[in-house]
Write a structure and sequence with these properties.
Elements (H helix, E strand, L loop, with lengths): L1 H15 L5 H25 L3 H8 L13 H41 L1
Amino acid sequence: MLAFLGGLAGWSLLKAAHFHSAPGWVLITFGFIAVEASWLTTIAFGLRLDEKWDAQFNPGIEEAKRTRSGWPAVLTVIFSLVFGAGVMMTFLAISFEQFFISQIYEAKKLSQ
C-alpha cells in the first residue's frame, strides 16, 4: 500500500515537473511494481486448483462447502492479464519516450 501511495505521489511530481523529476520517476516505479505485483498475485491465485486453494485456506472444510471457482475466476484472470500487460506496455512506452526526449534536450544544450 505504501508503494502504491508513493506511486501516486510520484505521478503528481512528474505532472508538476513536466516529466523531468528523478524522484518522481523513482516513486512512480515503486507504484508500478506494486500494481503489477497485485495483478500477478491475482493471476496466480486464479490459476490455483480448487483443491489446493481449499487445502491452504480452508483446511478441514466439509465436501458440500468445497470451493468451485468457475467462470468468475477465469474472467478475473483474463482481465488481470490483459489490463496488467496494457499498463506495463504503457508505462514502458512513456518511460522510453521521456528518456529519449531528455537525451535530445541534452544534446541540443551541448550543441549550442
